Amino acid sequence: MSGSNKEPMKQAIEQSDLLPSLIALATKIVEQNNVLIQQSSEKEKIILRLLDQNDEILNELVEQEDDDDEQTGSTFLDG
What we know:
Layout lengths: L1 H71 L7
């Protein structure tokens, strides 16, 4: 019977040997995830900045078009 008690003990030792490797791997995964989150946040900021720039440009174009219509008169509704 003492032989059968050695098997669970051997498995426990093997599992405890794997624990540092698993912790290191989990730590690496968390670090990589944090990098991805940061990169995603930076991309989001860039996209928002570009959207703001596009909005400003569109507003300027609309204002220019309105100014042109006021100066020359709009022919859009002329039939």
